[in-house]
Amino acid sequence: MALDLDIRQTKALIKMQLEHTFQDIPSEFRDIQKVYINSNEDLQMLLKTINVKEGTSAFSILAGGDMPFSLVGQGIYQIATGDLNNLTPYMALGLKKAMLGKYNYQEYLQTLAKLYDSNISLETLTKIIEDLMVLMEADYQEFWQAIVKYNYDLQAYKVKPINLMYLLGRLRNSNTSLDFIHLIPYLNDEVSYEKLQNNLAKAEITFINLDVLNDYQRIKGKYDLIYLSNILDYAYVTWGNNWDYAKLKEYINNIMAHLNGNGLLLLHYIFSKHLLMNSTELFDESAVTLNDLKLEEVIAWPDNPDRLLIRQKRV
Ligand SMILES: C[S@@+](CC[C@H](N)C(=O)[O-])C[C@H]1O[C@@H](n2cnc3c(N)ncnc32)[C@H](O)[C@@H]1O
Fold first, then answer.
1. Does the N terminus or the C terminus of the chain have fewer Cβ atoms within 10 A?
2. pTM value?
3. DSSP per residue over 150-210, as a string?
4. Does the CB atom of residue 233 touch ligand 1 within 6 A?
5. Ligand 1: does its nearest atom lie under 6 Å from the Cβ of 139?
6. Residue 83 alpha carbon to ligand 1 centre in Å
7. DSSP characters for 86-135?
8. What is the pLDDT of residues 171-209, one digit of tens each?
C-alpha cells in the first residue's frame, strides 16, 4: 500500500463528489474507487454450495471484506486477498475488522445501520470512526485519521453534511435497512458472528493491489479455493470489448495454476453482456460447461450456467 498516495486520492474522491454531487467516478480513480461496503452476492448460498473444509486456504477478491470474513468464520485461516481498488483494505481490513474487534453482534449491527444512515450527523460518524482507530494497524489508523479530519473540515459548515460512507462506499441501500444480513454468513446470527470473532485471532489475511485478470502471476503460492466474484463482467476494462471464449479459456488455464490439487475456482457472470454481445461463437451446452478444457472437473452451478465451479485435478 502507498499510504500517502492512497490518502491523496481518497481526499480527491471526497472533494470531487462534494463539488459535483455523486457523479460517476472518473477513470483516473482506478486505484481508489468507492467500495462495495457489503457484498452484493448471496454468500450464504455460495459457501454452502462450495462447502469449504476447515483449515484450507483461499484467495479471494477483497471488496468490502465480506467473503474473506465469511471464510474466516468457517475456519479458513490462511487468506490472501487482492483487489484493483486500493480503498478496499482500508475499509475492510481497517474499519470493518476494527468493528469486529470492538462490538458484540447487536452493537455491530447497530453501528452498521448508523454507517448506512444518510442522516447521521458528522459528529456521530466521526466519533464512531475515531473510537475504532485504536484497534487498527498503524497504516489504517493514519489513513482514517487523515480522511476523517479532511471530511470534517470540508463539511463542518454544512446544514446537512453527506455521510462519508456514501462518499467512499457503494452501499446496498440508501436507508438504514439491514435486510441483507441473512445473505452474509457471519452476520446471520450471534453464534456465527462470535465464531468469526474468535477465528480472526488465528487468521492471517494479506492484501495485494492487482488486476486479477492480468497480474495473476503476482498471486503468491497455491490455494484450495480461488474466489473471483463478479470480475468477469468487468473484464472488458482489462481485456477490451472484444474478448472471447478463447481468452476466457486461456485465463482459466492460467489461474488454475494457483490452485492446489482438488482445489476449486469459482467464477461468476461469465456470460455477461460484453462476452455475449461481442462473441462470434454460439454458447451451446458444451461451451457453457467448458468441457474442452479437459484438465479439470467442471461443475456447472446448479440452475445457473453463468457461474462456474471448476475443480483442479487431484495430484
Ligand atoms: C463489482 S464488485 C462487487 C462486490 C462483490 N461482488 C462482493 O461480493 O463484495 C467486485 C470487486 O472486485 C474488484 N475488481 C473488479 N475487477 C477486478 C480485477 N480485474 N482485478 C481485481 N479486482 C477487481 C472491484 O474493485 C470490487 O471491489
1. C
2. 0.91
3. HHHHHHTT-SSPPPHHHHHEE-S-SSS--TTGGGSGGGSSHHHHHHHHHHHTT-EEEEEE-
4. no
5. no
6. 6
7. THHHIIIIIIIHHHHHH--HHHHHHHHHHHT-TT--HHHHHHHHHHHHTT
8. 876 667 888 999 999 999 999 999 999 999 999 999 999
